[in-house]
## 1
Amino acid sequence: MMLFIFVSCKNNKQGDLKSAFIIDGKLSNASGKQVLLQKLTINDLISIDSAVLKNDGAFSFNVKTNEAGIYLLKKDENSYITIIADKGEHIMFECDYDKFNKAYSVKGSQGSEQICKLNDHLQKNLLVLDSLGRVWNVAKNDANRLQIKADIDSCYFRTVREQREFQLDFINKNSSSFAAMIALYIGLDRTQIINQEKDFNLFEKVRKDILAKYPANSQAIELDKRIKQMKMLRVEKNIIDERNSKK
């Protein structure tokens, strides 16, 4: 486990935390590189700030806010880390720049720590799928390739099931957190884990629990609208299917 080593001006930062959150970060092997902070909404991605890393890889963001929100810390378009932040939080983040979202540490934000655990588990299973792909590339011309393919498929589906069980448990245990909302939409490679049709009751649970916790939060209100729209579409589809079945 990497250690957090930060020197802060406590008086100034404690004052800032009344109406803001702070992210103090340190990335190894990253001198002169840039990181970008963006806010994620239901329908948009808004750039908030950017920083060029110091010689020791340190950076800091001080973000004014009046509510909890979801943010992306990015080194490029394909590499980002999800941060859940609220006013009053002092979030400390550390990782290796080259590994970035594959392995990182975060403190100071319960939601961000939950997302980190979710990411750690996801990365573990992505490594399994990557290994299966390498095995098949070596074995696809093997005389016994049909059996090898069957074994690979069996391991693949077992890994997907395990990831699904983990995400279902994670969402149910953290259903009032924005981390649960993120977990609803996270997939494993190109496989969607939580299904809007099959698992709609779970979407409903997260909607209700987050809205109950954050009744005036813009992110919670947008989530409420989106899932209610999903529900209406489901009802309309069921009516159409029922009519068609009677023809």
Note: The beta strands are 20-28, 34-40, 45-52, 58-64, 69-76, 79-85, 90-96, 104-107, 187-188, 191-192.
## 2
Amino acid sequence: MKFYPLKLAPVTKSIIWGGNYLKEHFGFESNDENIAEAWLTTSRPDGENIIENGFFSGKTLGDYINENGIENVCGDFDAFPLLIKFIDANDRLSVQVHPDDAYAKANGLDAGKTEMWYIVDCKEGAKLVYGLKGEKAPTFSEIEKANNDGSLSEMLNYADVHKGDCFFIPAGLVHAIGDGIVIAEIQQNSNTTYRLYDYDRVGKDGKKRELHIEKASEVIKTQFPDDFVSGKVVSEKDGERCEILCKCELFSVIKYNLAQGKSAYFEEGSMKSIICLDGMGKISCGGEDYEIKKGDSYLIPKACEGFVVVSESDCFEIIVSEA
């Protein structure tokens, strides 16, 4: 059978700000001293999931797409559209911004980068950078001056963070994850990041990490798009809860909380990614059952028939994304 739920092995990344939460709470393995990011659904030159089940076990997701046709796996896309990951910010991330599709196309980049964050866990009092103060985007010279005199933090808007919060990060929005925060991130399949400020940290080579102030100043926006929905509960009854975490023109993300024995049905017609945040259950598709537990990631190709996800624990929590 060519088209079935694909269980994907995570691609782990060690970065200076990472911690051990993903090892301790999700059981992810790595020989590196930390796991800053675990790429759960990805097909990129710098990160490619390995399929862990079925006929295509051992092959990369990219190989699977090449063999079966991107139109059957993803739909009407020229390249794999999403990058889905866990991020463990043991230390704060750089203050950064991402370009939109128009800028990416004009500058030879693979894609713009709009994303959303779901707060999996966080320490008490956690904060993140969420946009800028004021309505006018700073210029290159203003950002450079603020870096030099230590006043850049005065430009930033800070938001309190709680477990279960959701933040929409459109391309052009200045942002930074604070320390003590673990997130699930769903984003366009791009790794283009422009750093405005990095707290004068040094990388593994002993040198300060590169800033991209000029490019950042070219892509910063101060206005949100008005065509997105975030944090809307659409159903809550008898052990079933369904919440739209984010819905925009690029992707939709829905979170399900299911008590034991409860189920959610999904129609065919689009590629879907499922990541499990807690508990265990099964995916029933094409007459077969596929076990899914905390930390697991599955990709359901577009050409699959409809499927059902059933909870087999008291608290079964999944995030379902599609482009």
Note: The longest strand covers residues 82-89.
## 3
Amino acid sequence: MSATVPLQAWIDGVGFLAPGLPDWPSARAVLRGEQAIGSSAAVLQAPAVLPPAERRRASRVVKLALTIGLEAAAHAGTDIATLATVFAASGADGHNCHALCEQLASDDRQISPTRFHNSVHNAAAGYWGIATQSQAPCQVICAYDASFGAGLLDALGQVVVDRQPTLLIAYDSEYPEPLHSKRPLPDVAGIALLLTPEASARSLARVAVSLDDSAAEAMSDSALEALRATVPALRGLPLLDLLARSEAGSVSLDYLPPLQLRVDLHPC
């Protein structure tokens, strides 16, 4: 494949949550080989930035998306109300989808308003806007298993064209049975990256992304590879592996076959 002009930005903050990995510091320690990955299920809490009514209504994916987005912004010391955002997910709220299907299959087909408004793909983005009072641009993307790559490209495009710090929030939710057997995601998980057009004192690394056709990078740790392979939002784990180790290098991430994303990372 002929070379493409890479999209470049700086990573100023990271948010992370997955089974056995409750935040970015714990994930970074595991990626560095300093500790083993935990075996516990993902733990979610409604962020305190949500008003009480929305906190009660928040679904699993809303709690996940806000938690990792807020962690990345706090890591970078950035005002969340000023950030452009890109929300990327391969589906929506698996548990809510299951509950709606059960309700529609019953004799009582009346759907609650809360169930309905949590069923849309942009629900997490809506809750983020309520929580942050942000008036900045917001994109919501779904590209099935390529959703992390699609979200990364969109966020980088905004950084390069608009010269505006942009927060990528990639997240996924599991489905209960019987949908789980058709879409076997193990649990909720996600990655958030705060991308900026210029380097700052808080910048962790410079990243450049271009199209490629190399095979996607696999994780050497079997538990991490299982997460990367089964949760589309975690297709970015090879990038985080380089970032955690503060190593310069290149990785290939899953995108839309036969295209992949070549990511070059240069620590600050």
Note: Residues 60-76 form the longest helix (17 residues).
## 4
Amino acid sequence: MKNNDFSFTIKRIRFDEHYQPADSTRITTNFANLARGEWRQQNLRNALNMINNRFNALAQWDNPKGDRYSVELDIISVAVDIAGKGDVFPSIEVLKTHIVDHKTNERIEGIVGNNFSSYVRDYDFSVLLREHNKQQAQFSVPDNFGELHGKLFKNFVSSDAYKQHFNKPPVICLSVSDNKVYRRTENQHPVLGVEYLANESSLTEQYFNKMGLQVRYFMPANSVAPLAFHFVGDLLNDYSNLELISTISTMETFQKIYRPEIYNANAVAGKSYQPNLKNQDHSITQIVYDREERRKLAIAQGRFAEEHFIKPHRATLEQWSANCD
């Protein structure tokens, strides 16, 4: 297979208080989890209000009432067609932000990425890694772990489909790891905030590195813990302040919902910081989220990827991956 033997199809749907997940949407995604059940519309409305309030708090210049901006979110769903056979598989889902300036009536391009969801990643972490370690005396990682997923992602970002829809590389914003220690530095960015350095690399970061993404950790003003920013190129200079704020406000809101022990903690990260998912000294948002359900669904959707993508196309994928730079 040649590198261009994969083709990608991109679809987008607005994430707002009326959002309802399509049948094809990965139900483990953060946004789909919020959009189900009795409290779905209230969940969505509250989350969007949190995003807008946080955005205006960070974009405070020429914004005396704190209501100049609002954020619009699109869910970007990417499907991959292997070797042009019409055998399409849902690949990844990310979020795209737009910023609405109510003072100038402009709609400003934001960042693509933010959240990151992938069937193949579910397979790697929830199926392959788990089964590999059932046979091991101590934790280890399979050979070539994440290689295929990383090459698929890089192939997508360099594809014509990506370039037709997006004019800058993606930025993925994730929670920091609870098994690492982060040390505060003297480096400070006017929007991203104070930078932290990690004592070691996590498996997730190594996985994202194979996707062509490097990582830096920043704690924005009035946050309580650093966020992990995965990016290509120069995070501090390739994106405008408003673009960066759109990602911070969106992903910090999601993290407050999903990781309140870290991002809604009542104590601020100090000079040396280790996240603690058992921290009881935190506040809960008024948004219903089922973390255990999401864990179970990750396994189910990893099995789905195994059955419908990995096994039927194994020979093709292995040949492509071996020949891919």
Note: The chain has a mean pLDDT of 88.
